Amino acid sequence: MVKSIHFWIFFIIFGLSRCDFIFMNSLSKVFGESFINNDHFLATTGAITGLLNGGGRLVWGSLSDIIGMQKTLMLQTVSLTVMMFTFYTTRSGGEAMYFIWVCGIVFASSAGFALLPAASTTFFGNKNSKLKIGLLYMSQGVGALLQGFLMLGWHVLLKWRGIINLFGFCSLLAFGFAAMLHFILQSINNERMRIFSKFHNRTPHAQ
User: Fold this and answer.
1) How confident is the model at residue 62, as a pLDDT?
2) Residues 154, 160, 165, 51, CA torsion sign
3) Spatial distance between the Cα atoms of 196 and 202, rounded to a whole number of angstroms
4) 196 pLDDT band (50/70/90 cuts)?
5) Nearest-CA neighbor of 160 among 92, 111, 59?
6) 36, 49, 51, 142: most buried, per Cβ within 10 A?
C-alpha cells in the first residue's frame, strides 16, 4: 500500500487540507478579534462551525457517491483554496463576511473525515482496512505538525495576510495533487477501456 503512488497522493492531499481545518479551529477567533469587537458573535460562530463540521461529512460523503471520489476531492480543495486566499478580505466585509467564510472553510475541511476511510477501502481494498485507514490518518498528524511549523515564528514575519495566504497555498497544493490523481486514474481507466475494446474486437463472435 505505502509503495503505491495513490497512497502518497492521498496522504499529501489530506495532510495539506488538515492544515486549514486546524487553522480555523485554533486561530480564526484570534483573527476575528483583530477587527470584530463582539466576543459573543465570535463564540457563536465557533459553535456553529462545530455543527457544520459534523453535517459536512454527510454532505461530502453523499456527494462522493454521486460524482465520484476524485471530483469531490477537486471540488473540496479548490473551494478551500479560493476561500483561504480571500479570507483576509473579511476584515473589510465585516461580521457577515467573516461568518460566511469561517463556516465555508470548516464545512469544506470536513470532507477529509468522510473521504479518507472511503479512499482507503476503494483504492486499497477491505483487507486489513483498519491498518490502512490508520496509515492514511497519519496524514492528519503530519498536517497538524505542518500547521504548527507554519505558525511558529512565521506569523511574526508575515503578519495575518501572509500567514493566511500561506495556508491558501497549502490548499492550492492539495488541489494540484487532487487534479493529478484525477488525471492519473482517468488515464488508467482510458487505457483499460482501450485494451478491453481491442480485445473485444479481436474476439470472434458466435455465428
Assistant:
1) 92
2) positive
3) 10
4) low
5) 92
6) 49
> What is the reported pTM?
0.82
> Considering only CA atoms, which of 5, 114, 107, 115 is closest in space to residue 56?
107
Quote the crossing angle between the two packed helices 154-202 and 69-85, to the nearest 10°: 160
**Spatial distance between the Cα atoms of 75 and 81, rounded to a whole number of angstroms:** 10
Handedness of CA 21, 90, 76, 108 (dihedral sign): positive
Greater confidence (135 vs 190) lies with: 135
Compute the distance between CA of residue 55 and CA of residue 59 in angstroms, rounded to an integer: 7
137: Cα separation from own chain's centroid: 13
Q: How far is CA 158 from CA 70, 90, 161, in A?
A: 33, 18, 7
Residues 117-136: what's their mean pLDDT? 73
Euclidean distance between CA atoms 189 and 195, whole angstroms: 10
**Secondary structure of residue 50 in the 3-state scheme:** helix
Residue 203: phi and psi, rounded to 5, are -75, 125
- CA distances (Å), 178 to each of 6, 114, 119, 122, 186, in order? 10, 16, 12, 16, 12
Question: Among 95, 114, 100, 120, which Cα is nearest to 53's?
Answer: 114
